[in-house]
Amino acid sequence: MKHKTPVATLVMASLAVLLSACASPSQPKADKALGPVNPAGGHGHVAFMGSYDVNRDGVVTREEYDTLRKQRYMVADSNQDGWLSEAEYVAEFEARLKQQYVAQGRQSDDGYAQMMKQAHVRFNILDKNKDGRLSVEEENDVAERTFKTGDVNLDGVVNAADNMKKDKN
Ligand SMILES: [Ca+2]
Ligand SMILES: [Ca+2]
Ligand SMILES: [Ca+2]
């Protein structure tokens, strides 16, 4: 008795299974693919979570935060000279702001213009030694401060527990 077809048939069959698994819309997305809900951020706890909770699990770990900030800095340094000019800094912010507006189905409005204005102001504050460059050191400084601002209860992560004192006003 000869069995000629089984191997090829099995390969084809398993390929088909693999392909349909990949194409299946019910397949849960990988966490990585999500990214922050509101990448442009802003003030307060909700904005912090929206901007830095990459895997959207309700917790911003220090590692998650540092990785994302480094990524953003590298993307922003479009001429790759190791520091950010005001134009580079603002362009990177605008890309995130646009992404956020598109995701929310919003058109460019006064708020958009205001946030762009603030991005320029922010650059000049972050550029502490006023040489027109945001260096890695300056970026690390602000990253450190921003995380501490978010981590109200100082337990090393930012999550709902940090929302109590801040949004009281
Ligand atoms: Ca997270
Ligand atoms: Ca640069
Ligand atoms: Ca915390």
UniProtKB/TrEMBL annotation:
UniProt keyword annotations, A-Z: Signal
First and last residue of the signal peptide: 1-23
Signal keyword on record: yes
Gene Ontology MF terms in the entry: calcium ion binding
Pfam families in the cross-refs: EF-hand_5
Lineage: superkingdom: Bacteria
Segments forming domain EF-hand: 52-66, 123-138
Protein name: EF-hand domain-containing protein
Organism: Hylemonella gracilis str. Niagara R
Lineage summary: Bacteria, Pseudomonadati, Pseudomonadota, Betaproteobacteria, Burkholderiales
